[in-house]
Amino acid sequence: MSQVPLLSVHNLTAGYGRVDVLHEVSLDIQEGEIVALLGANGAGKTTLLRAISGLLAPKSGSVRLRGEEVGHLGAERLVERGIVHVPEHRQVFGTLTVRDNLLLGTYAFRRMSKRQRLERLEEVYTLFPLLKERQRQLGGTLSGGQQQMLAIGRAMMAKPAVLLLDEPSLGLSPLMVREVLELVRRLRDEWGTTVLLVEQNVRGALRIADRAYVLQTGRVVLHGRAEELAGDPSVQESYLGKHSSAAVR
Prior knowledge:
Layout: E1 7-16, E2 19-29, E3 34-38, H1 45-52, E4 60-65, E5 68-69, H2 75-81, E6 83-86, H3 98-103, H4 114-127, H5 129-133, H6 144-156, E7 162-166, H7 174-191, E8 194-198, H8 202-208, E9 211-216, E10 219-225, H9 226-230, H10 233-240
Parallel strand pairs: 3-8, 3-9, 6-7, 7-8
Antiparallel strand pairs: 1-2, 1-4, 4-5, 9-10
């Protein structure tokens, strides 16, 4: 692994109005890692992703990409730099076709030619053959799992260096949850995408992640290798059930 993290957050404080949600949060992500961000509802996980992706201005602290401070840049410029955020609840454009939803993923790249956009589209179709089959279908008519694939596919149109995924399995069936998490693993293994993953399915997240951080009331209270945290009694009791075995399958 490189000495300089691909993404580094240092002493980040952020919130809404006068209310601070994050309190001096620090984390590092090396290139090629899947890092899970765990915590109960209200712990600050979504706020952290919003602050990293430029949707929320930090009050203090830093966000660095390949060692360069980028915390002052807005969301659109961060997409150009390689930080792409897939928010919870998917947020596809229901009245646009699947194809047009995907092409919106290149919106920030105004200098990209039409040919380059179409080439990028075909690359994403190799990852999501179903989306190619449904490319003329309206996004709002897809199932929940298909809409999640569309949201991730739209993000991959920007060829992100770091993909921020917020609850990608939310509201999906157990079978689709497994498929989505396996897709996240493929993004890392086959596309070399680095992923920061917020996921309610803690067992599944720890199964595919390299490392994990645990947030509690806006602070990092635990971090380490995913397999180590899966066997940590406090993590088991809080997130995996008191009687869970140490192994995460």
